[in-house]
Structures are given as C-alpha cells and as structure tokens.
C-alpha cells in the first residue's frame, strides 16, 4: 500500500497537499502544469501520486504556462477531465490560452496559489494575480482554509462539467498562507467522491471526435453569432450561481461540511454593521467578530466565496437593512484608488430595498503582510463609528498607519 494514500483519513496537510488530494479524488484524465512558487508543491504531490500508482492521469511536462493550458484545451475538447495550476507571472504568461478556455466553454479546473505580481517584485502572498483576470470568463472561488481547498476542488469539477454551466473554474487560495500552512484536513474516501461526481456521467458535453468533427476557436462571422456566444456565456455564469449553492448543499449532506455556496453569512441576522472578507483572513475576522459581539456590538461578517460570477442577489439580500459595511480588500484597483471588492459592492448599493449603508474600504495584506486581529478590530471600530455618524476616510491602507 502506498504511504501517500491517505484517502479516508484525517491528517495535518498544507493547502497545496490538500488541493492535490482533491484533484486525486476527482480522477482527472490529463494534468499539465508548469511549476511556479507557491503552487509547485501541489504539482510535485500529483507527480508522486502518479509515480506510486495512485493517479491514473496523463502527466504532461510543458515548457511553460501557456503551453500547459494549450495542452488542456485539446484534452478537454476531446472530452477529458483536466487540471492545471499557476500563480502570479505564470498566470499572466498563460493569458491568451486562459482566455481561449473560457471562450470555448471548456470545463477545466485550475488552482491559483495567489501571489503578488511585479512591480515591485515580491514572491509573497496577495490576491492581485487572480482579481486581475476576474473578467476573463472563468468562474472564481476563493478559499478560507485547507479543508475548503480540498472540498472545493471536488465541487469545482461538479460545477464546471454540469450541462447547464460548462465553464472553467479557478480554485483560488493565498500562497504561503494557505499553500504552505498546515491544518487539520479530513480526506474523503474515494467511493464517496465517486458517488458525488457520478451525476456528471449523464451530463451532455461537446466533444471533438473524428466521427463527429467540429471547429473550435474559429473566426466568428457574422457579428450576431459572436454576440450570441457572449450572451450564452453570460447566461451560463448566471446559472452557475444557483447551481453552486445546490452543489454546496449536496456536498454538506454527503460529507458533513458546507460553506454557504456563493457567500457565507456569519452572525449577520441581527447585525447593524457587516464586515466583508474574501480568502484566508476570514478566519481571523470571525474570531474578532465574536469578541466584538461579547462587547455588545451588533456586527456580522460576509465571506465572499464566489467572486465570479458576482453573487449579486445573495449579497443584496444579506446587506439589506445594514447601517454600514467595512470591506477588507487584499488587492488594489488602481483606477478607483481602492480594492476590487469595494468597487463590486459599490455597484450594489443602489439595488438595495433599504437605504444604502455607508461603505468603507480597508486595504491590507499586500506584499505578504498578515491581516491581524488588530487590523480587523480597527476595521470594525471605524465601520461602527461611521454607522454612528462619525466621519471616516472612505479608504484606509491598514499597513501604512
């Protein structure tokens, strides 16, 4: 028996290894990936699985990230289940093939071990690489824990290959924080995951075969046909939202773990003030929310799990009636001098049924910096002050204070 076969066991794993077990359990046919920090250990683990006979996948070693995605475009077009991973500059180098994957509606699953991009240069944690491709047509899911990485890999295949979706999915987690930090992880049994993914066997999917040839990525004429492609892709993204909620609930029934689907609401029912987070800082934020609750503050938290497509309807419902919202952003939107989630939420305020709450942005965790409990306390205190009518800066750079 392989020493690496931990399926059905509970172990302490870092995020990369947890992700690798999620891939293993999903039984991909083709894996092509180029190593780049901090996702490299995930790829190394998959190669070890293959060497020990645990993983029956075709392992392709390309000369770069663009070629890695190119391999998967062909494999997926032929009907294969595929996987790759990248980070930072590697994701940028992959860009044109990354766009082709979404435009052709190929259900590829890809991990992004999120990392800052140049310049200045820093091989450090950040969400900037993933948010910069947020409108390239991929579904994006952001992780809080190592357990969620493993579970979301499995859910990503169920979502991507669904007949009503047929879109590529990114599983995004902060490099070095989640990729290299170790946590308790329950690894499902293979039979359980096979049962969870079994409905995909009955899903209809376009496949390129010699018996039924077709053309992918051709020049699209007339323009009305191009527009139809875009319209149908947008419609698929909208269908993916409700589908993801259903998949999360089903996963919870089968495995005893669920994450709220598109968003997770934490102590928001009677909250007057809400903090919005995305990624691994959410765990710290929940601890601080509990502390502030003990002090008598009516504060709650919303974790954005599905960033693309936007969980617009769920957010509108969750934010109705709130007095103030504090957004923790681990990225920068240069054009608006704020973070990306702040811009996203700003667009929702006019759609609320109740008077629009005050909205504050707090940028932190850039360049590998931690988002500490002290930072979250300041976020909550200033957001509560804004709710009381005290003037606050609309954007605060936490690490510069």
Task: Please give the structural blueprint.
Blueprint: E1 10-14, H1 15-25, E2 30-32, H2 40-51, E3 58-60, H3 65-77, E4 82-86, H4 88-93, H5 95-103, E5 109-114, H6 128-131, E6 139-142, H7 146-160, E7 169-174, E8 182-186, H8 190-197, H9 223-255, E9 263-266, E10 273-277, H10 281-294, E11 299-304, E12 306-308, H11 312-319, E13 324-329, H12 340-346, E14 358-363, H13 373-387, E15 395-397
Parallel strand pairs: 2-3, 2-4, 4-5, 5-7, 6-7, 10-11, 10-13, 13-14, 14-15
Antiparallel strand pairs: 1-8, 6-12, 9-11
Helix pairs in contact: 1-2, 1-7, 3-5, 7-9, 10-13
Give a written overview of the molecule:
- The protein has helices at 15-25, 40-51, 65-77, 88-93, 95-103, 128-131, 146-160, 190-197, 223-255, 281-294, 312-319, 340-346, 373-387; strands at residues 10-14, 30-32, 58-60, 82-86, 109-114, 139-142, 169-174, 182-186, 263-266, 273-277, 299-304, 306-308, 324-329, 358-363, 395-397.
- By secondary structure, the chain is α/β, with parallel strands linked by helices.
- The chain has 2 domains: 10-255, Rossmann fold; 264-400, Rossmann fold, CATH 3.40.50.920.
- The chain is built from 13 helices and 15 strands.
- The strands form 3 sheets. It has a 7-stranded mixed beta sheet with strand order 3-2-4-5-7-6-12, sandwiched between helices. A 6-stranded mixed beta sheet has the order 9-11-10-13-14-15, with helices on both faces. The chain has a two-stranded antiparallel ribbon with strand order 1-8.
């Amino acid at each position: 028996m392989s020493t690496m076969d931990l399926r059905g066991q509970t172990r302490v794993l870092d995020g990369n290894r947890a992700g690798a077990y999620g891939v293993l359990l999903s039984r991909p046919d083709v894996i092509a990936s180029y190593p780049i920090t901090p996702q490299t250990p995930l790829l190394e683990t998959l190669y070890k699985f293959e060497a020990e006979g645990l993983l029956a996948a075709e392992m392709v070693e390309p000369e770069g990230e663009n070629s890695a995605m190119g391999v998967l475009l062909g494999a997926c077009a032929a009907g294969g289940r595929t996987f790759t991973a990248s980070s930072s500059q590697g994701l940028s180098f992959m860009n044109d093939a990354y766009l082709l994957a979404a435009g052709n509606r190929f259900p590829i699953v890809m991990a992004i071990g999120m990392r800052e991009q140049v310049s200045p240069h820093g091989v450090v944690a950040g969400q900037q690489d993933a948010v910069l491709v947020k409108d390239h047509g991929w579904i994006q899911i952001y992780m809080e824990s190592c357990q969620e990485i493993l579970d979301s890999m499995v859910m990503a295949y169920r979502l991507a290959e669904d007949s009503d979706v047929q879109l590529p999915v990114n599983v995004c987690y902060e490099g070095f924080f989640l990729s290299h930090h170790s946590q308790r992880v329950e690894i499902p049994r293979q039979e359980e995951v096979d049962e969870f993914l079994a409905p995909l066997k009955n899903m209809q999917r376009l496949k390129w075969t010699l018996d039924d040839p077709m053309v992918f990525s051709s020049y699209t004429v007339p323009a009305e046909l191009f527009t139809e492609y875009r319209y149908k892709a947008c419609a698929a993204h909208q269908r993916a939202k409700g589908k993801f909620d259903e998949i999360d609930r089903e996963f919870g029934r089968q495995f005893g773990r669920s994450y709220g689907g598109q968003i997770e609401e934490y102590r928001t029912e009677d909250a007057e003030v809400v903090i919005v987070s995305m990624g691994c800082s959410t765990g710290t934020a929940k601890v601080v929310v509990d502390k502030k609750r003990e002090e008598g503050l009516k504060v709650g938290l919303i974790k954005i799990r599905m960033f693309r497509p936007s969980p617009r309807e769920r957010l509108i419902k969750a934010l109705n009636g709130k007095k103030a919202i504090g957004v923790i952003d681990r990225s920068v939107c240069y054009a608006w001098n704020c973070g990306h989630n702040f811009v996203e939420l700003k667009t929702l305020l006019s759609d609320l049924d109740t008077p629009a709450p005050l909205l504050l942005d707090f940028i932190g965790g850039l360049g590998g910096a931690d988002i500490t409990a002290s930072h979250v306390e300041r976020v909550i205190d200033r957001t509560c002050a804004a709710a009381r009518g005290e003037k606050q800066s609309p954007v605060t750079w936490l690490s510069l204070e």
